[in-house]
Design a protein that fits this description.
The complex is a heterodimer of chains A (297) and B (360).
Chain A: E1 2-12, H1 22-36, E2 46-49, H2 63-71, E3 87-92, H3 97-110, E4 116-123, E5 131-132, E6 139-148, E7 153-161, E8 168-175, E9 185-192, H4 196-215, E10 222-227, H5 234-241, H6 263-270, E11 278-285, E12 289-296
Chain B: E1 15-24, E2 29-31, H1 32-37, H2 47-51, E3 55-57, H3 65-78, E4 89-92, E5 98-100, E6 103-107, H4 110-117, E7 124-129, H5 134-147, E8 153-160, H6 164-169, E9 189-198, E10 205-212, E11 220-224, E12 231-235, H7 237-259, E13 268-271, H8 276-290, E14 296-297, H9 301-304, H10 311-321, E15 330-337, E16 341-348, H11 352-355
Parallel strand pairs in B: 4-7, 4-8, 13-14, 13-15
Antiparallel strand pairs in B: 1-9, 2-3, 5-6, 8-9, 10-16, 11-12, 15-16
Helix pairs in contact in B: 3-4, 7-8
The chains are: A alpha/beta (297), B alpha/beta (360).
Chain lengths: 297, 360
């Protein structure tokens, strides 16, 4: 009895005038994922959105509920005995959101409380005229989890933080001088230290080794390394430091490089067809935070 | 077997319980009449009569979502047998994420700063967002993790510096149908709750369930203001009220039936606190549908306003502090929030009723 990753999908900005927003990209990825997983959305029990930068910086409701509405999944009204429902909420843990959500969803799916769970992620510049230094590629991703009997599933998780101020932060604040007429605007600003990438790498290596040791799996047994796509080159540098052959690191399409929360989903999609028995997830985000997981199939 | 709400069957390797509850209230009180006197336009709205809200608390210049959350977490730990270092997980569940004044943080998550401040550096930490159902969502997640043995104990915490919405709305409201009227009912507060592993025979958190009626997800939208620091919120309050009255009772009925308990056996119903009138209407709708009444319905909105994700635990804290509860009392927490989220947890109170009033 365990959790199986049934399907993944991503969507990126395809150069159209419309369709750049995080919601559009996430919705599109979620639809593709359900289609690839041959899953009727009505079967979903749980939907967790881990994207951070959404259209107009919407703070309420959880974007997950809007995505559920857009997908037409158990929209309700009125609920009746015997009918099926879906629970949606947002989770925010920087670039580690997907793996953090995996740990939560694994509990509900792995014990059969939920049969299907969908984890989605998507980020895009929320308001280009009032965002300064937005560093990520616009992209959405989705991962479908299914309850299955057998030994497939997650062997362990490790989520650790290594607080160090000023390495990576994003804030929204009021700027009196912003706006076309300098009438003032709420602006989103990013601050990234040159040391951020190196710290993510150092801590990522340590957490990956700690996780592998805790579940008794050697690095040589890791057939696939799934990592964040930001900071740039995190995945390849991590593989080098862990002494993993480069062919165990999937290369994402150029337009998905620098993808934020959907980064690990993009890597999984790029690894489509891999026969790896053990997949090691290592993601990094602000804090710095490292979230790692080991998956066996 | 229930199917609409995600909740059952739950893993039963262990049981879980509410171990401690903490809160933080800003000292500054703002009466509803003071707030209505600040509107730019003459509104003719008797908000106090309409909502039953007499006053709310509002952050001072040195307070923020973060400071409220940290103070509530510390109050919670003072009432707990645990230290911060004992916590396996810290979940921040606030809608607002202000660290200072009107600076709203996206990354890193606020939970990271909170756990550092309370001495819980090894706890897994992340933020969740589920509108006013955020804290109950966090309890729902901890209950699952504890029941299946993944963690032993965790904290859900929230600091809501949300009265800026009322300040911004006061410039735009003309009459009672204004989409920003609900912003005038908000209050600032922090709350925290520790959930831990209980004796397997202890009912503790006897049941918990959540569902999202996403058809109504766009009835209440909160986003940064276009004109001023902070945020703005547009609410179709009547439509939300109608959905909650129509769809809430069958969901409560479904979950209570799964546990084999009737509404009349509930000692205390603590609903989300939006207005006294809405709470009374909700109680009436529940009683009509389920054929019985809870013994007591908790109302704190008159004094605190709608404090967003913290309302249920602010009310629980207050009634624990006033020794209203007895050991064995059944307390039903009911969240109704933008999304539209409906969440329920049934607590059977244990020695929390004694330990709460004895901060160490």
């Amino acid at each position: 009895m365990a959790t199986r990753i049934k399907a993944v999908a991503t969507e990126h900005h395809r150069g159209r005038v419309l369709g750049r927003g995080a919601l559009h990209l996430t919705d599109a990825a979620a639809r593709s994922c359900l289609e690839r997983g041959h899953c009727d959305g009505a079967e979903l029990d749980l939907l967790i959105n881990t994207g951070i930068y959404r259209d107009h910086n919407l703070a309420e409701p959880a974007l997950a509920s809007i995505i559920q509405d857009d997908l037409g999944v158990n929209r309700g009204h009125p609920p009746k005995f015997g009918h099926h429902g879906t629970f949606s909420f947002d989770l925010s843990n920087g670039g580690c959101g997907v793996v953090t959500a995996l740990q939560l969803a694994d509990g509900f799916v792995g014990c059969g409380t939920a049969r299907f769970a969908l984890i989605v992620a998507g980020d895009a510049d929320p308001a280009p005229h009032t965002t300064r230094g937005y560093p990520f590629a616009p992209a959405g991703g989705a991962m479908l989890l299914e309850y299955v009997p057998g030994e497939t599933g997650f062997l362990g998780f490790a989520i650790r933080t290594f607080p160090e101020a000023g390495l990576f932060e994003s804030n929204m604040r009021w700027d009196e001088a912003a706006g076309i007429l300098h009438q003032g605007r709420n602006v989103v600003e990013f601050v990234e230290s040159p040391q951020f990438a190196m710290r993510c790498l150092d801590h990522g290596v340590a957490v990956a080794r700690e996780l592998l040791a805790s579940v008794g799996v050697g690095i040589a047994d890791v057939g696939l390394l799934i990592s964040s796509q930001y900071p740039a080159d995190f995945a390849t540098s991590l593989a080098r430091r862990l002494e993993l052959p480069s062919d165990r690191v999937p290369r994402v399409a150029p337009e998905l490089e620098r993808t934020h929360t959907a980064g690990p989903i993009a890597a999984l999609e790029a690894a489509d067809g891999s026969a790896a028995r053990h997949t090691l997830f290592v993601t990094a985000g602000a804090g710095p935070t490292i979230a790692a997981a080991l998956y066996r199939r | 077997m229930i199917t609409w709400m995600l909740g059952e069957p739950r893993p039963s390797t262990h049981a879980s319980r509410i171990e401690a509850v903490g809160r933080e209230l800003p000292a500054r009180r703002v009466t509803t009449s003071e707030l209505m006197a600040s509107t730019r336009h003459h509104t003719n709205i008797d908000l106090e009569k309409l909502t039953g809200i007499r006053e709310h608390r509002a952050c001072g210049p040195d307070e923020s979502s973060l400071t409220l959350a940290i103070a509530a977490a510390r109050d919670c730990l003072r009432r707990s047998r645990y230290t911060g270092g004992d916590l396996d997980m810290v979940i921040n569940a606030s809608i607002t994420r202000y660290t200072t004044g009107t600076t709203h943080r996206f990354e890193p998550p606020l939970s990271l700063s909170i756990k550092e401040a309370i001495g819980a550096p090894k706890a897994i930490s992340f933020d969740i967002s589920n509108a006013c159902a955020g804290m109950l969502t966090g309890v729902f997640l901890l209950d699952d993790l504890i029941r299946r043995g993944s963690i032993r104990r965790g904290m859900v915490v929230s600091g809501e510096h949300i009265t800026g919405l009322g300040t911004n709305a006061a410039r735009h409201i003309h009459n009672i149908v204004s989409p920003q009227l609900a912003s005038l009912t908000l209050g600032d507060a922090g709350a925290a709750v520790i959930v831990d592993r209980a004796d397997p025979n202890s009912p503790g958190i006897a049941l918990a369930g959540f569902t999202t009626l996403a058809e109504h997800s766009r009835l209440c939208l909160g986003l940064p203001s276009w004109h001023a620091p902070g945020a703005q919120m547009f609410t179709r309050a009547r439509a939300i009220h109608d959905v909650a009255m129509q769809d809430g009772p069958p969901l409560v009925e479904e979950l209570l039936a799964s546990y084999g308990i009737e509404l009349g056996a509930i000692d205390w119903l603590i609903p989300h606190q939006t207005s006294v009138r809405a709470i009374k209407a909700g109680e009436h709708a529940l009683s009509e549908q389920l054929g019985s009444h809870p013994k007591h319905v908790v109302v704190t909105v008159d004094e605190y306003g709608n404090t967003a994700s913290t309302t249920l635990f602010l009310a629980l804290h207050r009634y624990l502090g006033e020794h209203r509860f007895a050991r064995g009392d059944k307390v039903l927490l009911l969240s109704v929030a933008s999304g539209l989220e409906i969440g329920i947890a049934l607590l059977v109170l244990d020695d929390l009723v004694e330990t709460h009033g004895d901060p160490n």
